[in-house]
Amino acid sequence: MTHPLVAAVDIGGTKTAVALVRDGAVLARTQAPTPARDGAAAVLDNVAALVRSLGDAPVAVGVGAPGLVDPSTGLLTAATSSISDWSRVDVPAALRARLGLPGVALNDVQAFTLGEAVHGAGRGLPIVIGVAVGTGIGGGVHVAGTLLTGRRGAAGHLGHIPVPQAVGRPCPCGVTGHVEAVAAGPAIAAAYAEHTGDVIALPEVVRRAHRGDATAARVLAEAGAALGTALAGLANALDPDRIVLGGGAAVPELVAAAEPAFAAACMPVLGAVPLVPAALGGDAPLVGAAEAACRGLGLTSDAGRDGGEAGR
Q: Which end of the chain is less packed: N or C, by CB atoms within 10 Å?
């Protein structure tokens, strides 16, 4: 069955991407800087203008947004501080007013997970965990055709799994000891600065590790071990078919260090749970947002015909 054309939106703190998507295929796309400092209304005006600029006639809009979406109210909660006045915004209602289209919103990494589970590296598998490592660490869980959202919309938020490598380290969420505090991109750069006094970003840490800098190599190894430990805990609880890794900070050096820690901490009965790279690249959140929009219309992709609604 061919599904209708839908608009998909991926809102980030620095840029907003919009695409027209049908059956998991991106047919047209555009992007523009996110007017984050100008507040939610400006951000959503920007989204509407980008959707209109693509022409054609989408029947719905799906949005991957930073922050959590409360399943009971549809409002953004635990919103990112990178966009002003972003908390408690009803994104679908705001876009309906601007575009006259029905829509849904979900967390951006949950959108990434949905895209990869249905149309990407997890296609056709019963239980898929998505992981995005960037300025933070986010995740999602797709089970038997359903994206789990949880009671508060936080299901799969694996950056806040406690790990021993992070004991005493403050996490951006306000608690100490979470894996995001040691394995996200800024955390790795901060750890290097603590040891050396050099304030550099993650790509330069990686370059220095390649040039034989022992401190850079050790920081990446420690971060990877923390990530692998956290993922093993999740795998032990959910017994997934596959874990899909993406995000700008999921550099090969980090993943290589995560793999042995993951294997060592997984229960032997699980066997080898594959850790695989995202297949859709930067399109994964857009494809997932489009899939959520289709599910909001009561449609399910052939790749996910064993499941139901966009979230539970």
A: N
Q: Rounded to whole angstroms, how far apart are CA atoms 121 and 34?
A: 29
In whole angstroms, give the CA distance from residue 108 to residue 142.
14
Among residues 100, 72, 135, which one has the least CA distance to residue 7?
Answer: 100
pTM for the model stands at 0.93
Q: Is residue 181 part of a domain?
A: yes
Q: To the nearest whole number, what is the mean pLDDT of the chain? A: 93
**Residues with Cβ < 8 Å from 253, sequence gap 6 or more?**
206, 209, 220, 224
d(CA 299, CA 184): 35
For the record, the structure tokens of 122 come out as: 């997890």
242, 279, 179, 156 alpha-carbon torsion, rounded to 10°: -60
> Which among 48, 16, 46 is positioned nearest to 31, based on CA atoms?
16
Q: What are the backbone dihedrals phi and psi of residue 260, each rounded to the nearest 5 degrees, phi first?
A: -65, -35
Q: Could you read off the pLDDT of 196-243 as tens digits, one per residue?
A: 999 999 999 999 999 999 999 999 999 999 999 999 999 999 999 999
Residue 55 belongs to a domain with what CATH number? Answer: 3.30.420.40
Give the containing element (helix H, strand E) for 217: helix 214-238
Range of the domain at 148: 124-277
Q: What is the pLDDT of residue 238?
A: 96
**In this predicted model, what pLDDT tens digit does every residue of 121-178 receive, in sequence order?**
999 999 999 999 999 999 999 999 999 999 999 999 899 999 999 999 999 889 999 9
Name the token pair of 25: 């295929």
Nearest 5°: the CA angle 110, 115, 116 is 100
Can you give the pLDDT at residue 311?
43
Find the helix or strand (DSSP H, E) in which 261 lies: helix 252-265
What Cα–Cα distance (Å) separates residue 222 from each residue in 193, 212, 263? 15, 16, 15
**267 found inside a domain:** yes
Distance CA 27, CA 20 (A): 6
Q: What is the pLDDT of residue 1?
A: 65
The tally of domains found in the chain comes to 2
- C-alpha 108 chain-centroid distance: 5
